[in-house]
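REQUEST ID: PR-0412
SUBMITTED BY: lab tech R.K.
PRIORITY: routine
TASK: structure prediction, single protein chain
INPUT:
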Amino acid sequence: MNWKIYMFHQFHFGRQLFWLRKRIELKDVDAWRISLIENSNIKLIRPSAREMIESTNLPDYHKDPFDRLLIVQALTNKCLFVTKDKIIQQYNLKTFWI
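STATUS: complete
OUTPUT:
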């Protein structure tokens, strides 16, 4: 199975900031994931039992349990949450979207 993944690159030209979006196709997504983690500052965060429980205690803005878990992980680990989901943006966390 081929995977299509969109990569976003940020760069400066003088004082101007630009974003470039590029689609890549992957035949071996596991090899790509391993290479990406080994060659970047990306870290995998495994959910803890405490985070799973805490996700049930969030304000009831968002109904999706997986999104709620991601929100708790972003808050706990002080991560920037990449999303365009307006509901997630109601929680007290830093979000980003291009």
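NOTES: The longest strand covers residues 3-13.
REVIEWED BY: pending
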